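[09:14] KT: can someone run the structure on this one? pasting the chain below
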Amino acid sequence: MTVTGPASPGAGTADRAAADLPEMYRRMRRIRRFEERASELYRATEVPGFLHLSIGQEASAVGACWPLRDSDAITSTHRGHGHCLAKGLDAASMFAELMGRESGTCRGRGGSMHIADPGRGVYGANGIVGAGLPIAGGVATAFRLTGRDGVVVAFFGDGAVAAGAFHEAVNLAAVWDLPIVFLCENNHYAEFSRVEDQHRATLAARAAGYGLGYEYVDGNDVAAVAALMTTVVDGVRHGRGPVLVEADTYRWHGHYEGDPERYRDAAELSRWRSRDPLELARNRLAAAGVAAEDVDDIDREIEDELADAVAFARAAPEPAASTLADFVTAPRPDTGPEESLVAGGRGANRYRVMDAVRDALDQELALDPSVFVAGIDVAAGGNVFGLTRGLAEAYPGRVRDTPISETAIVGVAVGAAMAGLRPVVEIMYLDFVGACFDQLLNQAAKLRFMTGGRAPMSLVVRTQFGAGRSSGSQHSQSLEALLAHIPGLTVVMPSTPADTYGLLRAAIRDPNPVVVVENRLLYGLRGAKPPPDHLVPLGRAAIRREGTDVTLVSWSRMVHEALAAAEQLAEEDVSVEVVDLRTIVPLDRATVLGSLARTNRLVIAHEAVQDFGVGAELAALAVSDGFWHLDAPVVRVAPPPTPAPYAPSLERAWLPDRHAIAAAIREVVRV
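[09:31] RB: done, structure tokens below
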């Protein structure tokens, strides 16, 4: 189905009705019958998952998408079938997706709430309320940075207005002057709650507060929605700034199929049914002189089309069990052999970790125009640690300051990555990941999988952590285990200047979402300067010191404490092999197990609290795959399970050091 805009923009109202309304009606009829058939299939247990229908809201979907080009974009909601169909997706593959079939829009990996096809400008329906709004900001940013005049229509319901993602996305769009139409389908209910019980401010007042334009439209009148959106989209396309549009409409079914709907009465539903968008359109067609028989022909054509679509979906195969792991991550490029940097080599003891961060960003910005950097104070301020100073001047428009809006920042990365760019965004402290966890957990990590590989997701989130300087419980946490537990995310934690440079460059080039976690206490650490083309393959550990008596595994700053402990123990004739993981996910199991096979003992040292951490995963690896090599219990050296303390005396007691590591190794080698 090809989506086209108004047939005759300059014609009069009657002419436009005659020319455009039959196609508008056709699209609304397609949505109505798709959803009615979906409801039937759900009741027959042919749709296995949740189903949220938008019957009664067809006019807002069709009218909003009417002026859009194929190159424009939408983001959608958990109630998004109508939006996807209105933007041009085909019913057959959507039915197959609802049924969990391999030929579904997302190869059966997404289901009703997660249909997407970035190639057709559909950047995802979304099971998280409001989550598509920050992603829309990323798509719009990609349009701007690549010189395209595309427009994004970001659909959301009235309930999403209460979500923080709405505030962050709308504010960022206003600050960056992004080409977005935020279209609220106000259907008067947020799940089971009436809209008047959820909000005290109107959308018009909110739009004014954000500095956005605002428009109201009867969301059940497709011609009115299309006429308004034609004007609004044209203005946004030509740089007049983002706009918030409120379409007043109503959903006939419950929040989900099977909803008992005890929260509204039959009289209210009857009043809204009397303003059926399809009947209103038929009346307009009759007034414009279109014969009822011609409209009936459209109904029959749609019925035949959807019957064929359902038959196609029923006949489609289910995904094979052997494809379970497909699309979790994209294949990584071969970076070639890693260059060995010997001590005392190029630029020894002059090159700092902070230099490596800046140089890696500089190198990738220079080499790849699809790379951009965004975050709080990364442009004018050059980052809170001065890591990005000068980059904004060197790359105008591609190093961008954001508001303090972590959800919007990571959402921009997700949307821009889906649109083909390679964003590098900064979360100032790792502790702040909680403020944007949905965009990492449910968006960046899952969208490639849930779209059956349709959504590219090459993005980097840079952040930093570090205990030991009385930064307190909310600025000291080592949360890599939290991130490592999310399938789809890559987690990198470098310990040297050369690795910081090589891993960050590799992360930016990687086709997967990568979180690069730096330790701020290492920013001044000096070491050998790598050559400009230096890359460190993701997922490959490094043996920092060879040994024969015990394997000591660590990462990030704790590697240096491990090396100091190994040096101390060498004077006691204990030979310690130190393994630096460098990448937490994917975990280099082979290097760890290979070292264990040589030494037969394993000690793990890390800065994160001990319980349920990466050290526990390594211990499990040792007692499963490496059990027959073990001559002693596996020992972990890590902080106890309390928040990081502020008082220096408590922090010293909490955070292990080289002496605690050495003591643990002595116990292990005595066994």
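[09:33] KT: thanks! DSSP finds 23 helices and 21 strands in the chain.
[09:34] RB: yep, looked fine to me
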